[in-house]
Automatic annotation (TrEMBL), chain A:
Keywords assigned: Membrane, Transmembrane, Transmembrane helix
Protein's name according to its UniProt entry: ABC transporter permease
Transmembrane segments annotated in the record for this chain: 21-39, 59-76, 112-134, 140-165, 172-191, 229-250
Highest taxon of the lineage: Bacteria
The keyword Methyltransferase is assigned to this record: no
Automatic annotation (TrEMBL), chain B:
Pfam families linked: ABC_tran
InterPro entries according to UniProt: AAA+_ATPase, ABC_transporter-like_ATP-bd, ABC_transporter-like_CS, ABC_transporter_ATP-binding, P-loop_NTPase
Keyword Amino-acid biosynthesis: no
SUPFAM superfamilies, A to Z: P-loop containing nucleoside triphosphate hydrolases (SSF52540)
Residue ranges that the Swiss-Prot or TrEMBL entry lists as coiled coil: none
The protein, known as: ATP-binding protein
Entry's Gene Ontology molecular function annotations: ATP binding; ATP hydrolysis activity
Domain spans labelled ABC transporter: 25-258
Keyword terms, alphabetized: ATP-binding, Nucleotide-binding, Transport
Gene3D superfamilies: P-loop containing nucleotide triphosphate hydrolases
Record flagged with keyword ATP-binding: yes
Length: 263, 326
């Protein structure tokens, strides 16, 4: 365990090493929300609404998207792709660490560093809402924590599976780009899933992506009934087991393939 | 067992794709690829006793790096067996990975955003080395390699030599039984090369670490190696003590001279090793150097004659040439 904490620490140090990456992180947190706020106040002026969602609820939704993203979004697939194709992976497989554990620790360190960068903003928000903190709903807080943790693990497992494809594909660039667009869309990153047509809603119910973003945001915004939340957590856990298994299996096969093609 | 390395009938085949030049063939490969299997390493056998420094030499594409990657568990062999310090590298056990270290001269392992101290801390925890022993090792080694004052500088800001030295410290501070070095002095200045050679010698002397070294720099090999293995087209063509190889060519000298007015190659009577517009080098038995020197001058075949012993790189080239001529 100690070694994985050490890996997470180095990942944190890497993020915090340059001022530019801190600036980029801050911009990443603020710009999309500001853009979406501007966009939706233009589309839905005053009290107009789409399927019951006003500009205000849309903005809350996008703030939720960014909050969840800050815990979850890490380009593990891109990193794995780079490491496999550059041969950097050899540096990792030679170390006395489990490969999946190593990458997960890197993601964890990166996410914690992100939160540290955002700490001043989070602190300001907390101070502004100090009276609400004392009336914090502990159950709700626990639910949010669990959904975000689940989203993080699912995102990692899914990204790892996609990244492992780099063992076989010489150029995974377009796969990763298309994956990013499709997954973001079906995760509810661009639009809440309740605004989707029925066919897309049904499709997203068959896939794990809603647990990356939409489900935690709904929990965060207290839009989920306890029974639906419990079912969601169960399905998410099943997806996690399946994706972990696939990732483990692909990595084993891929390591042998890597060995056959990389000189 | 210690740090013994044993390799038996080791083979590694790679599948490579080939295509003819031009857009048409590039388009054709989208539908069908022409695959070809190549033998990078072809049934090689060797043993390296524990505590030995072995030079693993070969021309580009000879299979050196592929062999190192198999010995370190990065690549799986196509067939054959390997035993490194009592482990089968393909099993990639944690204990095996803790017992070996690898330094690749052409590939940085240190994370460039971090300082050497950060990197070394990570290595200490990752390899579960006692922190006090680790710190002592690091202090000694960084002093020996003259990088002790650079440990808090971001790795990106270090020179190539400094970075390599930190890689060495990290690799050795974990007390490996076997240390694999692939071109460790590539691109380094004279002082850095000297520091690293001295460091390798001290390490081997003090800790009896087995060191498996590949290098194109014959000074590295002659300065530190006990044993030498020559690899050509994936096959071992020579395996023995370095001193034994040097001895085999001890009875020969290179005579180098400026072409005289009556110079004719077919009158020399000895093999030409190198010929330029105005100079020639021939290989002559040591006992005949004086006679040949006189003959060159008296017969007007050559002037400004110089005599030199065969250097290690000359000897290795000769071995490769002899192998090529069957």
């Amino acid at each position: 365990m100690k070694k994985y904490l050490a890996v997470a620490q180095t990942s944190m140090k890497s993020v915090l090493a340059s001022k530019s990456s801190i600036f980029v992180l801050l911009a990443q947190a603020l710009i999309p929300t500001v853009v979406m706020a501007y966009l939706w106040t233009s589309i839905l002026p005053g009290h107009s609404a789409i399927q019951g969602m006003t500009a205000e609820t849309m903005i809350k939704y996008y703030i939720g998207v960014n909050v969840v993203n800050f815990f979850v979004w890490y380009a593990i697939d891109w990193e794995l792709n780079d490491d496999i194709h550059s041969g950097e992976l050899s540096n990792i497989v030679r170390r006395p660490v489990n490969m999946m554990g190593y990458y997960f620790s890197r993601m964890l360190g990166d996410r914690i560093a992100n939160l540290m960068v955002l700490a001043p903003i989070i602190l300001i928000i907390l101070v502004m809402h100090i009276k609400h903190i004392f009336s914090l709903d502990v159950i709700w807080f626990g639910q949010v924590f669990m959904t975000i943790l689940l989203a993080m693990l699912l995102w990692f497992a899914f990204g790892y599976v996609i990244g492992c494809l780099a063992y076989w594909f010489e150029n995974l660039f377009f796969v990763l780009i298309v994956k990013e667009i499709v997954v973001s869309f079906l995760a509810g990153y661009y639009l809440p899933l309740n605004l989707f047509p029925e066919i897309l809603k049904n499709l997203s119910n068959l896939l794990p992506f809603q647990y990356f973003s939409y489900f935690p945001i709904q929990t965060l915004l207290k839009q989920t009934l306890p029974i639906n939340w419990s079912i969601g957590i169960l399905i998410g856990l099943m997806w996690l087991i399946a994706l972990y298994g696939i990732g483990y299996w692909l990595n084993r096969l891929g390591a042998r393939h890597y060995s056959d093609v990389m000189g | 067992m210690g740090g013994t390395i044993e390799v038996n009938n080791l083979e590694k085949h790679f599948v490579v794709t080939e295509r003819a030049p031009g857009l048409k063939s590039a388009l054709a490969t989208v539908f069908k690829r022409h695959k070809k299997q190549i033998a990078a390493v072809n049934k090689i056998n060797f043993t390296v006793p524990a505590g030995t420094i072995v030079g693993f030499i070969g021309q580009n594409g000879a299979g050196k790096t592929t062999t190192i990657k198999m010995l370190t568990g990065t690549l799986y062999p196509s067939s054959g067996s390997i035993n490194v310090a009592g482990f089968n590298p393909s099993e990639r056990t944690q204990a095996f990975r803790r017992d070996i270290s690898v330094v690749m001269g052409n590939k940085a392992q240190i994370m460039l955003d971090l300082t050497p101290n950060d990197y070394l801390q990570l290595i200490q925890v990752m390899y579960d080395v006692d922190p006090i022993t680790f710190e002592q090792n690091v202090n000694e080694m960084t002093e020996l390699l003259h990088v002790n004052h650079r440990l808090n500088v971001q790795a990106r800001k270090l020179s190539l030599g400094e970075r390599m030295k930190v890689e060495f410290v990290a690799a050795v501070a974990t007390n490996p039984q076997v240390l694999f070095l692939d071109e460790p002095t590539i691109g380094l200045d004279v002082q850095s090369k000297r520091d690293i050679r001295q460091f390798i010698r001290c390490l081997n002397r003090d800790k009896q670490t087995t060191i498996f070294l590949t290098s194109h720099d014959m000074e590295d090999i002659s300065a530190v190696c006990d044993q030498m293995i020559l690899l050509n087209h994936g096959e071992v063509i020579w395996d023995g003590q370095l001193s034994q190889l040097m001895q085999e060519f001890d009875d020969y000298r290179y005579l180098s001279f400026e072409k005289g007015t009556a110079y004719q190659a077919d009158q020399l009577g000895f093999p030409i090793m190198e010929e330029t517009f105005d100079r020639v080098t021939i290989k002559v038995p040591a006992a005949e150097v004086n006679v040949m020197t006189n003959r060159l001058i008296v017969n007007g075949l050559g002037t400004a004659v110089t005599v030199q012993d065969l250097q290690l790189d000359d000897i290795i080239l000769e071995v490769f040439n002899m192998e090529a001529q069957g």
